[in-house]
Write a structure and sequence with these properties.
The protein has helices spanning about 15-20, 35-45, 65-70, 75, 85-95, 135-140, 160-175; strands at about 25-30, 50-55, 80-85, 100-105, 110, 120-125, 145. By secondary structure, it is an alpha/beta fold. The protein has a seven-stranded parallel β-sheet with strand order 3-2-1-6-4-7-5, with helices on both faces. The longest helix is centred in the last third of the chain and has 16 residues, at about 160-175.
Length: about 180
């Protein structure tokens, strides 16, 4: 087996990416403090044709060298918007008919393995702060909570790992062909 060369991967150009069809998914970062995590979320969002990333509260915005270090330019291809308060982002999403999902361990949460999505709806997924998670006031405004099943001794995953898992599953469930 031979590894592909980067020139053989036939990736989209930044202009082609911007013109490409996106999955109806917006990723929301609720007070994510690590710039490396922010960059990683941009890169994953690029990989799975996410519509946009909303950066809220203390979450840093591009351009920033530490975001670029993990995003590798995805911060320039994926649309993004900043909101001072995450609740403003949630209100904007609901006004535009998005089903808003907090990714959080909560009463009544739906396990990601059991999640069914409607391919005719638009979705937003909210990922929380590395220590405190998604704010309770934000969870209260969401349509549902999605939880990743975990089987070991730890009760949480890194936010960028969580985003990778959830974005990939949403992509599989609501994908449009590029």
């Amino acid at each position: 087996m031979r590894k592909w060369k980067i020139t053989e991967l036939n990736r989209l150009t930044p202009d082609a990416f911007k013109a490409a069809g996106k999955i109806p998914l917006i990723v929301v970062l609720d007070h994510v403090r690590s710039l490396h995590n922010v960059g990683s979320v941009f890169r994953t969002s690029d990989a799975f044709l996410v519509e946009a990333v909303y950066l809220c509260g203390i979450t840093a915005c591009p351009p920033h060298a530490e975001i670029h270090k993990t995003a590798l330019g995805a911060e320039d291809t994926v649309e993004w918007k900043y909101f001072e308060d995450t609740l403003q982002a949630v209100d904007c999403l609901k006004k535009n008919n998005y089903t808003v999902c907090a990714v959080e361990q909560a009463e009544g949460s739906v396990m990601l393995d059991d999640l069914c999505l409607d391919g005719n709806r638009k979705y937003a997924v909210i990922f929380g702060n590395e220590v405190k998670g998604v704010q309770q006031s934000v969870v209260d405004r969401c349509d549902l909570c999605v939880e990743i099943p975990q089987y070991g001794t730890k009760h949480s995953l890194n936010v960028s790992v969580t985003a990778g898992i959830v974005i990939r599953d949403f992509f599989k469930l609501i994908r449009v062909q590029p």
